[in-house]
Design goal:
The chain is mainly β. The protein has two domains: 1-70, Immunoglobulin-like (Sandwich); 99-123 and 149-642, Maltoporin, Chain A. It has three helices and 38 strands. Strand 4 and strand 5 (51-55) form a beta hairpin. The longest helix has 8 residues, at 105-112. It is globular and about 80 Å long. The two termini are 29 Å apart.
C-alpha cells in the first residue's frame, strides 16, 4: 500500500490500520501489511483529513490511498473518537470515548475536555425547564439555559426552536462515531449559538457487509443503557437502523428518567463523485426533578422530538463537500402547565476547493427558519406563535506559503429577520518552529442572537434585545517531540460584550444588553505512551473572569491511565474541579471535588466484549449544582455482542 497527497507525493509517518494491524509509512509513503480481503483500512496523518476505505478484493497492483489536506481552523479542535478510529490530529491527540466510561455525549465532553464543564444533578437524566441541568460551558461561555455552545449533528445545527438550547438527554453516545469540541468562537461556520464553541457529533456510518450489534448494561439505582444496531452496505447502497432505551430510578426519590429513541438511515452512491443519504430520528423521554434537598420535588417533563436530514455529498479530486436539507421538531409537556410545539428547518451547503497546491478555499451558506408556539394551561396563558429566519454565506481561505507556515482568514455575513445583518471575521496563522514543535495564533469573532424565549416569553421578555458579541484571541504552542509524547499549551483572552443579563427582582424583572465580561485563561494537555500497553494523559484548564457564572470552576483537571493487559483493557481516570460560585450574586460557594472512575473491558471473543465500570471510586460527597447531592460510589456492568 502507498499513501500519497493530492499532488501525488508520498506521505511519510502516516498511520495505517487494517485487519487489526497498525503500521506507519516510511519516507516513500509505503507500508506492507499481510491482510485478507475484504478488509477495511483507515489512514491518518498529521495535516491531512483521515480516510476510511473498504477493499473487497486484493490484486497484484499496489493499493494507493490519496489524502486531502486538513484545513487550518480558526480554533483548535479537541477530537474525541472511538478507540478503533485513532487519529493523529493537529492537537495533542485523540481521546477514546469507549474507554472512559462515559454514558452520554455531554458526559464524555465533561470527562475528557478540561476547558468544558457540564452541570448535572444525578446519575442520569439532565432534564429541562427550571430544574434542568446539562448546561455546557467552554472557557466559561455557555449561558443558562445553554445557548452559547452549539450542538452540530452530522453537519446541521440542533436546538429547541423556541428556547434555543440543545436537548442533552437526546445525544446518545452509542450512536456517535466521533465527537469533537471546538474551543472558542465557531460563528464563521455556524453563526449564532456557536459564540463560545461547538460540539460536533458525527453518527455511525455502516461499512461493507452486514453487521448487527447488541449492547446492554445495568448498574446502581437500576440505571441501564440498551441498544440494538443493524446496518449493511452492499454495492452502491447502505442502510442502518438503531433502537435504544436509557433508564434509571435515580439515586434520590422522584429522580426517575427513561428515554427511548430510534434512528433510520439509507444511502446510495450515485457515482465515484456523488453520494446521497436520508437520515431520520425520533425519541421520547420522561424525566423527574427531585428538587433541592429539603424542598418539594420539582416538575416532571415529557418530551418527544424528531428530526431528519437529506444529504448530498460530492468528492471530486479538487473539490469536495456536502449539501444538507434538515429539520427538527418537538413537543414539550411539563407538569407546571407548560405546553409547546417547536420546529427548525433549513438547508446548508459547505464546499472545499483546492485552488492550488498551497491554496484551499472553504465556502458555503445556510438558510434556517425556527420558532414555535407555547402556552401554560394552568395559568390559562397563551404566549402565541413566534418565528425567526436567517440566511448567511461564509468563506475561509487557507494559504501555505511554505511547508512550515500556514495562514488563513474567514468571514461570515448573516442577515436575521429580527436582528438585521452582522459580519464576523476570523484570522489565523501557524508556524512549524522545528520538527515536532509549532505555534498557532488565532483571532475570531462570535455572536449569539437572543432566543424566542428571551424576546417574547419569560421571565421578562424584551423584543428590543440585540445579539451578544465576543472577540477571542489565542495562542497555542504544540509539542510532538516523539511518536510517544505530545503536549500543547494554550493561552486565550476573550472579550464578551452586549451580554443579556436579568436585572431587578421578581416580579419586576428585566432583560437588558448590559453585561460585559473578560475571560482570560490557560489550557494544557499532555499524552505519553510509555510502551505498547501503557499510556497516560492529563489536561488542565484555568480561567480568570471578571464575571464568572455560577457553577463554572476556575480550575479543572482531567487525567487517565490506560493499560492493555492483553486479555483485558483497564482505564483509570478522574476529574478534579475547584470551588465555584453557587449563585449569581456571588454570596455563596460550592466546594470543589475529585471524582475518580474505573472501567475494565474484556474481549471474550471477536464477537463478545464484557465491561464493568465504577464511578466515584472515592465515594466523595459533592454537588455540581446547589441542593442536588451527587451519588456516591456506583457501578455498572454489561456486554457488547456482535451478532453477525
Amino acid at each position: 500500500m502507498r499513501v500519497l497527497d493530492e499532488q501525488g507525493l508520498p506521505v511519510p509517518e502516516a498511520v495505517v490500520s487494517a485487519g487489526g494491524v497498525r503500521l506507519q509509512t516510511g519516507s516513500e509513503g509505503r507500508v506492507d501489511a499481510a491482510v485478507e480481503a475484504p478488509v477495511e483500512i483507515r489512514v491518518v496523518a498529521a495535516g491531512f483529513l483521515p480516510i476510511r476505505r473498504t477493499i473487497d478484493r486484493l490484486t497484484t497492483a499496489e493499493v494507493v490511498v490519496e489524502l486531502r489536506p486538513e484545513p487550518v481552523y480558526s480554533t483548535l479542535d479537541v477530537v474525541v473518537r472511538r478507540a478503533d478510529l485513532e487519529v493523529n490530529s493537529a492537537v495533542a491527540g485523540a481521546v477514546e470515548i469507549d474507554q472512559a466510561g462515559a454514558r452520554t455525549v455531554f458526559d464524555a465532553v465533561d470527562k475528557l475536555v478540561p476547558s468544558a464543564f457540564v452541570t448535572r444533578r444525578g446519575v442520569m437524566g439532565y432534564g429541562i425547564a427550571s430544574g434542568g441541568t446539562g448546561s455546557v460551558s467552554v472557557r466559561g461561555v455557555g449561558s443558562s439555559p445553554n445557548t452559547g455552545i452549539l450542538v452540530v449533528i452530522d453537519g446541521r445545527p440542533d436546538y429547541m426552536g423556541m428556547m434555543g438550547h440543545p436537548l442533552p438527554d437526546f445525544y446518545s453516545l452509542p450512536d456517535a462515531e466521533t465527537v469533537s469540541v471546538t474551543k472558542g468562537p465557531a460563528s464563521v461556520l455556524y453563526g449564532s449559538n456557536a459564540m463560545g464553541g461547538a460540539i460536533n457529533i458525527k453518527p455511525m456510518r455502516p461499512v461493507e457487509g452486514f453487521r448487527t450489534e447488541l449492547s446492554s448494561g445495568i448498574g446502581s439505582y437500576w440505571t441501564g443503557q440498551h441498544r440494538l444496531k443493524h446496518g449493511g452496505g452492499f454495492r452502491r447502497w447502505f442502510y442502518s437502523l438503531t433502537a435504544g432505551v436509557d433508564h434509571t430510578n435515580g439515586d434520590r426519590p422522584s429522580s426517575h428518567f427513561r428515554n427511548q429513541d430510534g434512528t433510520a438511515a439509507a444511502g446510495y452512491t450515485i457515482s465515484d463523485t456523488w453520494r446521497t443519504s436520508l437520515r431520520g430520528r425520533y425519541g421520547h423521554f420522561v424525566v423527574e426533578d427531585p428538587g433541592a434537598v429539603g424542598s418539594a420535588p420539582g416538575p416532571w417533563a415529557s418530551v418527544g422530538r424528531g428530526g431528519f436530514s437529506w444529504n448530498l455529498e460530492n468528492t471530486a479530486s479538487r473539490i469536495w463537500g456536502n449539501t444538507r436539507v434538515f429539520g427538527s421538531w418537538g413537543h414539550h409537556h411539563i407538569d407546571d402547565g407548560w405546553r409547546s410545539n417547536d420546529r427548525t428547518v433549513g438547508a446548508r451547503a459547505h464546499q472545499s476547493a483546492l485552488l492550488a497546491p498551497t491554496l484551499l478555499l472553504d465556502f458555503g451558506g445556510d438558510l434556517v427558519d425556527y420558532g414555535g408556539e407555547g402556552r401554560n394551561v394552568d395559568q390559562a396563558r397563551d404566549y402565541g406563535a413566534h418565528y425567526g429566519a436567517s440566511g448567511a454565506g461564509f468563506g475561509r481561505l487557507h494559504w501555505s506559503p511554505s511547508q512550515r507556515v500556514k495562514l488563513h482568514s474567514g468571514l461570515r455575513g448573516e442577515h436575521n429577520s429580527i436582528f438585521g445583518g452582522i459580519a464576523v471575521p476570523e484570522f489565523g496563522a501557524s508556524a512549524a518552529i522545528t520538527d515536532g514543535y509549532s505555534l498557532h495564533l488565532n483571532v475570531s469573532r462570535g455572536f449569539r442572537n437572543p432566543t424566542i424565549r428571551e424576546l417574547y416569553l419569560f421571565p421578562a421578555p424584551n423584543p428590543s434585545l440585540q445579539p451578544e458579541r465576543m472577540w477571542n484571541y489565542q495562542a497555542t504552542f504544540m509539542m510532538h517531540p516523539s511518536n510517544s509524547v505530545s503536549a500543547s499549551v494554550t493561552g486565550y483572552y476573550a472579550d464578551l460584550d452586549n451580554m443579556i443579563v436579568t436585572t431587578g427582582r421578581w416580579p419586576n424583572l428585566s432583560l437588558q444588553n448590559s453585561g460585559k465580561t473578560l475571560n482570560r485563561g490557560v489550557e494544557a494537555d499532555a499524552r505519553w505512551r510509555l510502551n505498547r500497553r501503557l499510556s497516560v494523559r492529563g489536561g488542565y484548564a484555568w480561567i480568570h473572569s471578571t464575571n464568572l457564572a455560577p457553577y463554572i470552576p476556575s480550575h479543572k483537571a482531567t487525567y487517565a491511565m490506560e493499560v492493555d493487559l492483553k486479555r483485558a483493557f483497564l482505564h483509570f481516570g478522574g476529574v478534579t474541579v475547584s470551588n465555584r460560585w453557587a449563585n449569581a450574586g456571588k454570596t455563596a460557594e460550592l466546594g470543589g471535588y475529585t471524582v475518580p472512575s474505573l472501567k475494565v473491558m474484556i474481549p471474550v471473543s471477536p464477537r463478545l466484549t464484557l465491561f464493568a465500570s465504577v464511578d466515584n471510586l472515592s465515594n466523595s460527597s459533592y454537588e455540581v449544582v446547589t441542593g442536588y447531592p451527587m451519588p456516591g460510589v456506583n457501578a455498572a456492568g454489561g456486554f457488547t455482542m456482535r451478532l453477525q
